[in-house]
Specification:
Helices cover about 30% and strands about 15% of the residues. The protein is an alpha/beta fold. It has a seven-stranded parallel beta sheet with strand order 1-10-9-6-2-3-5. It has a three-stranded antiparallel beta sheet with strand order 4-8-7, with helices on one face. It binds fructose -6-phosphate. The site of fructose -6-phosphate (F6R) has 14 residues, from loops.
Length: about 270
């Protein structure tokens, strides 16, 4: 592994010009390189991270860089973006397990804090009622004053688990998930059971962060990325609301960007 591609900080302003289209082979290294820049600029970075197939290669690059002592998250606070409901503690499909396996648990120096949704009842029973509300409120409090939020995009335009129907003011909350999202937990992430729902940071929290990065890879995301960047801002595609953020950067690989009318000017 050649290691993350470190952008010259002087190039920063152009990266904040919203859309970075990268060759698929350089995508993960470049995104990791930018993350390392942010960690160098602010060692106590408060960063919200997603799980899933899109960010995994970025985390692998980051872990390799940390082992080579080219990066440190030891001062960073990592806030998990979302979590499934109805999966047992330790289920490989769980978001907390995946982020631990992909990143947090792989780091020599660890992180200062890893904040995740406290979804497990004392006996492993699913949370409900006041206990569920408390778990939501606690993670929402962790997500105040985020410096940076990384998000992926679902095939239906969701961001985190802000499914279609969400608005820019949607709060951190428990949500019903669309069948395709639930099926993905089993089919794509190896969950042992079909989840019953999810918890997500709200679009309100995401849009209040200092900076937002939308990570998108693969030809199968090309149509939804076009909808998110070039279609109307609409609850039918919650990712379209990310355009309201003054410091949004879209990191797309070339296959994901192939349907954009004007790559380079999202
Ligand atoms: C996961 C999350 C989801 C995913 C989205 C894309 O924490 O927030 O919104 O980012 O479903 O998933 P992948 O990257 O697996 O295609």
């Amino acid at each position: 592994m050649a290691g993350p591609t470190r952008p010259a900080v002087a190039a920063e302003e152009s990266a904040i010009a919203r859309l970075e289209v990268l060759p698929a082979s350089e995508w993960a290294r470049t995104v990791a390189g930018w993350l390392i820049v942010r960690l160098e600029q602010r060692p106590d970075l408060r960063v919200c991270l997603p799980t899933g197939d899109t960010p995994s290669p970025v985390y692998a690059e980051l872990v390799a860089a940390e082992w080579m002592e080219n990066a440190s998250l030891a001062g960073a606070t990592v806030v998990l973006l979302d979590e499934w409901l109805g999966l047992a503690p330790g289920d490989p499909g769980r978001s907390d397990v995946r982020l631990e396996d992909d990143l947090v648990g792989q780091l020599q120096g660890g992180v200062r804090r890893f904040a995740r949704f406290a979804v497990d009842g004392p006996d492993g029973a699913p949370l409900a009622g006041a206990a569920l509300a408390a778990a939501v409120a606690a993670q929402d409090a962790e997500a105040e004053h985020l410096d940076l939020v990384l998000v992926g995009i679902g095939g239906n335009g969701h961001v985190g688990f802000n499914e279609p129907g969400s608005t820019p003011s949607s709060p951190t909350r428990a949500v019903e998930l669309e069948p395709t999202t639930l099926e993905g937990a089993v089919a794509r992430y190896g969950a042992a059971a079909r989840p019953t729902g999810g918890l997500t940071l709200g679009l309100d929290r995401i849009l209040a962060a200092g900076e937002v990065w939308l990570l998108v890879t693969g030809e199968h995301k090309a149509a939804i990325l076009r909808e998110a960047l070039e279609g109307p801002e609409t609850s039918a595609c919650p990712a379209s609301f990310l355009r309201r953020h003054p410091r949004l950067t879209v990191f797309a690989d070339a296959p994901a960007a192939r349907l954009l009318a004007a790559p380079g000017q999202a």
